[in-house]
Structure formats: C-alpha cells, structure tokens
Amino acid sequence: MDSNIDNRTEENKKLAALLFPDVVNTPDYYEEKFPYRKLPSKADVTRMAPSPTGFMHLGNLYSALTDERIAHKKGGVFYLRIEDTDEKRKVEGAVETIINVMRYFDIEFDEGAGFDEVDGKNVYGPYFQRQRVEIYHTYVKDLVERGLAYPCFCTEQELEAVRNKQDADKVLTGYYGEYAVCRNLSYDEIEANIKAGKEYVIRLKSQGNPEREIKFVDRIKGEIHLPENIHDIVLLKKDGVPTYHLAHAVDDHLMRTTIVIRGGEWLASVPIHYELFNILGFKMPDYGHTALLMKFDEETGGKRKLSKRKDPELSLDYYRKDGYHPYCMKVYLLTLLNSNFEEWRDKFPDKDINEFPFSVEKMSQSGALFDKDKLHNICKNELSKLSEDTLYEFLYSWASEHEQEKCKVWFADKEKMLNILRLYMGVGMKRRRKDFIYARQVFELISYFFDIEDNSEKDKFRLDKKITDNILKEYLETYSHNDDNSEWFNKLKAIADKFGFASDMKAYKAEPEKYLGNVSDVAEVVRIAVTGRANTPDLWSIVHIMGEEQMRERIEECI
Prior knowledge:
Strand 1, helix 3 (58-73) and strand 2 (77-80) form a beta-alpha-beta unit. Among the domains are: 2-26 and 135-290, Rossmann fold (3-Layer(aba) Sandwich); 388-449, no CATH class; 465-558, Orthogonal Bundle (Arc Repressor Mutant, subunit A). It has helices at 2-19, 27-33, 58-73, 94-104, 133-145, 156-169, 187-195, 244-254, 270-280, 316-322, 326-337, 341-347, 372-383, 388-402, 404-410, 414-425, 439-446, 465-478, 485-498, 505-510, 519-531, 539-546, 548-558; strands at 45-48, 77-80, 111-112, 149-152, 201-204, 213-218, 222-227, 234-236, 259-263, 286-290, 293-296, 303-305, 368-369. 46% of the residues lie in helices and 9% in strands. The strands form five sheets. The protein has a three-stranded parallel β-sheet, with helices on one face. The protein has a three-stranded antiparallel β-sheet with strand order 4-5-8. It has 559 residues and is mostly helical.
C-alpha cells in the first residue's frame, strides 16, 4: 500500500514537471511575498473586480458602494482588480473608464489597477489577472503534484457526446465521476497525447461527494446548505489562462480579501469555490450575495430584472450624461442597501451619509426594487439643500464636459447664473424650492434666460393674435425697468382693465361672464412671450435677471 502511494506521488511530481516545466516558484514563495495586511482590528479588505468591457452599470455602483462602505468603516482597504481572462471582451481604455466613473460617483479606491505604488500601497499586484498567470500556474502545479488536478484532452465534440449520454441517462450533466474520461489517464498516456500535439485543459480532480452538503453563512442571506461540488471543473484553459473560479480564489487569498460582495447569480458556484479554497489550503473569505436589482414592469404588472437591452437607466453613463449628482445617487442606493438607512436619515438629516453605520447583515435578501420616481424625489430634496456656490460648481463641471459650447454662454456671467439659481432654489425663503432633479433638466428649465438655439416646443398663446398683440404693445409702452414688483403688477392690472379682463379676482369669480379673462391671463401672455412657457417662477424676477433689452427683443419678436 505504502509503495503504491509513493509510486503515485512520484508519478504526480513527474506529471507536474511535464505540464509546468517553467514554473520554479512554490506556493510558499507567494505566501511570503504577499503577507497578511497590517490593519486595525476588525478592518475588512474588499474589492471591485469587473471585466474590462467598458460598460459600467447600476449593479456595479450598488456593489462598489457596499464594498467601499464595508472597507472604510473601520480603516480597511478597498481595491480594484481587473478580471481580464476573457480577451475577447476587453475594450481599450476600460480601466480608465471604470476609475473615472467610480470617481464621478465619489467612490475612491485605495489601491489596485490604474494606481501607482506609493508608500507601501499597491504591493499586492499585479491587479490584472492576465499578468498573474505565473502565480496561477504555481498553485495548479502544486495541485497536480498532490494528485488533485489533471490534464483533460477531450474535444468539444467528445464533451457534447458526454452531455448527450447524460441527457439520455437522465442524470446530472457535467464532467464528473464515470463521465470524466480523462480523470484516470496514466502518465504514459498523458505524455503520448502531449507529444501528439493534442490540446488540453487542466481540471480539478474533485473530492466532493453527492451525498454530502456544505454549510456556510452568507453575510446577507444567512445560513445556507448546498450539495458538495462533484464536478471536475476547468482550472486552466487551453491557452494556460485561468478560469474565473481558480483566478478569484488565488487572487482573493493573496490580496488578503476578507469579504466578497457579489451578485446572487454566483450563489450556485459556492460549492466549487468552497472546495477550491479548501484544497488550496486557503482561508475562505466571507461571502455576501446581493439581491437582484428589479424594476416594475408596466406590461406584465409584475417585477423583472433590470435589463441592459430594455433599460437605459441600467447604464451608469445614463446618469453621468444627464448629470445626476453623485451624492443623490449614493443616498438613493443606500435606501436600497440598508433597510434602516431612511430612518437614520430622518433622524439625522444634517449628518454626512458616510457616518451611517452601514451593515452587511441589513442588506435586502430579496430583489431590490429600483424606483426612478423615488430617485428623482431624493434628487429634488438633496439638491435643494446645496448652497448656491456648490450647485453652481456642480453644474459648471457637468456643462464643461457635456455641453462645451453652450457652457460658454450659460456661464459667461456668473452673477446672472447665481441669480437664476436663487430664483429656482428659493434661497432665503423659509421653505426651499425643490425644482431640480439633475443637471440636464436644470438647463432645460432655465434655457429661456439665454439666447441659444432651442428646439424645445414653446407653449401656445390661448388668446387670439389681435388681443395678444394689443396686450404686448401696451406692456412695452408702459414698462419701466425701475418699477418694483408691486408697481409692475399694478401696470399689468391696468392693462387687464383696458382690454376687458378682470383686474380684481373677486369680481372675476363673482361674474366671470362679464370679462374676457382675468389679470393672470394677461400675465400669461407676457410670460409666454418672454420665456416661451406658461408656467415659470416669478415673472418680475425673471425679467430683472434677463434684462430689459433681452425682454423687449423677445416681445417684439412675438408681435
């Protein structure tokens, strides 16, 4: 018996040397190179690990905010790792896009891809998986030496035949047990296949038993029981690049990740990862599997998953291009992430949201419902709290990136823009106005102050052309830019009386049939002529921000 074990061990070492002739390091070398981090007690290490596709979606921000809050709650580390094992999906400039998008939403990484090594940081790299192939090969070589991994020469056609047989036998599909035809090849058979130029992958030799199950505590979903993994999954693809399963296990271990927050679709992979961490001799990090982001489907009346194809609001570019304030987005996402956030926010309305005691355990276990109306209400509320200078700077920053030519006109006169924002924000009023949702909508609301080509539809005059012209001509003849609001309005009342409109609202309500309308109808004529809109804030204020010359030009153009 001992002799057989010795022979098998020697054969495994010989096979490892055949498969990995260039690997000189051992796992111990990397364990020493990447020691456990020296962090405060109970501090966590979290990561964002996207593929470099360039597409960043709401789910990325949802998870990144979670990871950032967990890491920075007690002085831990939040890093960026790029999972670029699938070369076909790689997009040039994607890493810069990821960093810039996260930065826009006020999510900052402590280290990782795209950052320089400074003051002892960034030493757990490289943070691109394709640059870590040598590390993965070291660990797989060790598994081969221990008889826990082997080369598989099956072609796609042969694997398809196995699947067909399993379907016919009505058994679980996959590469395992009697269906793992390369599992017990001898060294001589393997060597002959390699010499014949046959391509191969490296598979895990699973030690799982279908009769047993694993038990683990998901930090979000609680205690979960799943059957053990029995599949001989692929560890290294034909080109020597690792699969996600192997790469993330090695990386999370060597980068000393303590908790992994990821989408609920990965829950089914936990048995594979559980086995990998165990056979590699790694301490498994905590896992938290997030709920899907859902939305109400008007067609079916039910809920469905946010879709890249159907829902433009899934993309983070959607929010950047329209200019949603990052703070508003974070406030909204926290309402989805922690059930007690809104209660805390109501209790401490003036506190920085970073002071909120974020908890993984209070994250939603079922689907989180994305509600655009609620997001917009939060935006209105939060933007109304900003100082005029803060809002000015945010709008300028957005416009200079997304509307460069118009930006020169909008911000040519800082005092004019500040006066517009004061009018719409109600600075100094007991209750602040809540008109603004996002930057693009702000400029749509205030565009009439500027002589810029505007394709938006203007409101129509409700009165006939002759009466409208008479009102506007009289308005221009009697107008004085030195009139205060009260004098200005008295002149509007006089115009109303002259052309058969009621200047007294009580008289109008008592006998409306005696009049063509009332003074508000007269004001509407002037309002539409000046702004193109029937509903705006205080017209006298608008005229004085706009200036007499621009106002007269607009009215004369209408006559």
